[in-house]
Amino acid sequence: MSHLLKRFFYTLPLVFIGCLGSMPGHAAESSAVAIAAGWRHTCALTTAGGVKCWGDNSAGQLGDNTTTNRLTPVNVSGLGSGVAAIAARYDHTCVITTAGGVKCWGVNTYGQLGDNTTMNRLTPVDVSGLGNGVAAIAASYDHTCALTTVGGVKCWGKNDLGQLGDDSYMNRLTPVDVSGLASGVAAIAAGGLHTCALTTAGGVKCWGSNVFGEIIDNYGELDYGTPEEVRGLSTGVMAIAAGSGFTCALTRAGEIKCLGVAIGGEMGNVCNAVHMLSNCLTPVDVTGFASSVSAIYAGYWHVCALTTAGGVKCWGNNEYGQLGNSVHGQGSSSIPLDVLGLASGVSAIAAGGGAHTCALTTAGGVKCWGLNTSGQLGDGSATKRSTPVDVIGLGGGVTPGPVVPASPLTGLWWNQNESGWGMSLTQRDSMAFLAWYTYDSIGKPTWFVISSCPLVGSGCTGDLYSVVGGTPLGVPWNGSGKVVTKVGTGSVAFSDNNTGTLNYSVNGVNGTKQITRQMFATGSVQPSVNYSALWWNQNESGWGVAITQQYGMIFATMYTYDASGNPVWYVASSCPLSGNNCAGDLYQVTGGSAPTVTWNDATKVVTKVGTVNFAFQNSSAGTLTYTINGVSGSKLISRQLF
C-alpha cells in the first residue's frame, strides 16, 4: 500500500476492512487493526501486518491450506506480514499488500480470485494484471473489484447481470476496466449482484442487477452493464455501502439515504414492510440517530452505522441477532438500534454477507454477534449471539516490543527544538495520512504528503508526494494544472502515544527527525464533538485543511497555493471554539530551514496575514471563511474519509 496516493490533495480516499485473531494455547494474543466479514467467515488484519481468519472453511476461504472450519482465528498461509487491507463478502477473501498488489483465496467458480483460473484456492494467489497500483478492494458474492491509485475501477468474476461494468455480460477470469471509470473514483462498494462507485465529485454510480431498484427506478431495465448515475445521489455523498438488493449512502450533511428492497427494515422507517418484500425506488432517509454518523456498512439484509462517538447502531433483518440488541429480541427493526455494550470505543464495523456483524475496538480487540453456525463469531462456539462476544485471542492486549499507540495518532506533531515546521497526522482505522508542512532550500513554505501510510506494528511507511500547480484560494478553482510528484518516502515509528521518529528521503536526501505530539491546550471537559480530521472541498481536490482539536481549542493548518501555483501553508494556531464555531488569526511562517539541512531558528519569520473562521454544520460538514492578505473568501468543507 506504500504506493497508494489518496485523494486529499489528489485522488482516492478509502476505508479498508479485514480479519484477525488467536487462541490461548495456540498462538500469542494479537491486536487487530482492520476486520472483514464474509458469508460465514471473518478475518482480521493484525498490527504486524498479518492476516487471521475463522469460521466456515469449506472452500478454503480461511486460507490456512485446509478445508476445516475454525471456531477461533488461524493464520492465513504466507501472510504473516506485509498486508495493508482486507476484504471479504461471500466465500472468498482478498487482501492488498503493502506493495499495492492484490492476493485472493477461497471459492473461484467464476474467476472471482482473478488468477485466470476457476480453481478454488486454499492459500492466497496473486490477482493477474493489477500490478502494484491498487488503493482498495471490494469483494462481492461472485465477483471482486479494485480501485486503482489513479482513481479507476477494475472488476473480475461473474458478470451475468453486468456486475463487472464492462458491458460484456461475460465472466472474466482476470480484471477488466469498468466502462467510463478510468479515473475520478473515490471509493467502491460491492453488493450482492451490483457494484457502486463514489466519485470524487460526491456522486454515486452503480452497475449490475437492478431487479429490486437498487440502482434506479426503472423496472424496464433489470440490469445495467455499465455505470448508471443513482438518481438523488448525484452530489454531496461522502461514503457508500451496498447490500443484497439495496444501496445506502452517507451524505456530507450527515444523513443516511437508502434505496432498493427491504425485507426487514433496511430502508429505515420509510417505505418498509418488515418481513414483507417492499421497494424504495428512490433514496429515502434513515432516521433515528441522536449523534452524527461517520461511516456505514451493509450486510446481507441489515445495515450498521458507526457514530462519531465510536458507538454502533444497526437496523434491518435480525433473524439471527445480527443487530446486536437483545432487548429487541430477534425481530427485525426499521429503527436504528444501539448495539448493546458498544456505545463508544469502536473504530470500524464489518457487516457480514450472511447474518453476522463484527466490530473493531479502539484497543485492537474484535467483538462479533449474530449467526454462528460455522464459528464465524470466533468465540470458540457455534452458538448464535444476539449481543457482542469477544473473539478469542483478539483482546487488544499489550504485546512485547515497541508500543502500538492505543489512542488515535491524529494530532499535531513537531520537534520542540525546531519550532516552525510540523506534521498533521490523521488516523482512520489502520490507515494514517501525514501532511508535512516545511520549507524549501530558500526558506519558502512548501508541503509534502504521505497520503497512504498503513499502520503496521508501531508505525507506518508510505510514499512522499509534492503537489504543485493548484489554484490560490482567492480565485475560482481550476484543478487542471495540478501536478502530483513522488519525491521520496517517509516513515514514522512511535515509542508511545506522544513520541516518535520521522525518517525520510526527499529528492534523494535522507534524514531523521524526532517528533512529539504538540500539546497546545488543556482543560477538564472535552467538547461533545471533536473536529480533528482532514477537511477539504470535494469539488476542489488539491488543497485542504488539517484540524487538530484539544479541549476547546483548534489548531488549523491550511495547505494551498500561491499566485504562481506553488505550495504554501498558513496556520491558525489559536482558534477557540464557541459553540459550533471558531475564529482566529492566520499566520504565515517563512525563512525556515529545509528538512534536509541543519535547522536555523534565527532565519524564521512569522507574519500575520489575515483571519479565519470555521462554522461547523455538524461533525462532518462546515464552512471555512477567510481573509488572506486583504482577499476574502468562503469555502464549503467536509471531513475527508480516506
TrEMBL record:
SUPFAM superfamilies listed in its UniProt record: RCC1/BLIP-II (SSF50985)
Protein name stated in the entry: RCC1-like domain-containing protein
UniProt keyword annotations, A-Z: Guanine-nucleotide releasing factor, Repeat, Signal
UniProt source species: Candidatus Nitrotoga arctica
The keyword Nucleotide-binding is assigned to this record: no
Domain RCC1-like: 29-269
Entries under Pfam families matching the protein: RCC1_2, WD40_RLD
InterPro entries in alphabetical order: Ran_GTPase-activating, RCC1-like_dom, RCC1/BLIP-II, Reg_chr_condens
PROSITE patterns in UniProt: PROKAR_LIPOPROTEIN, RCC1_3
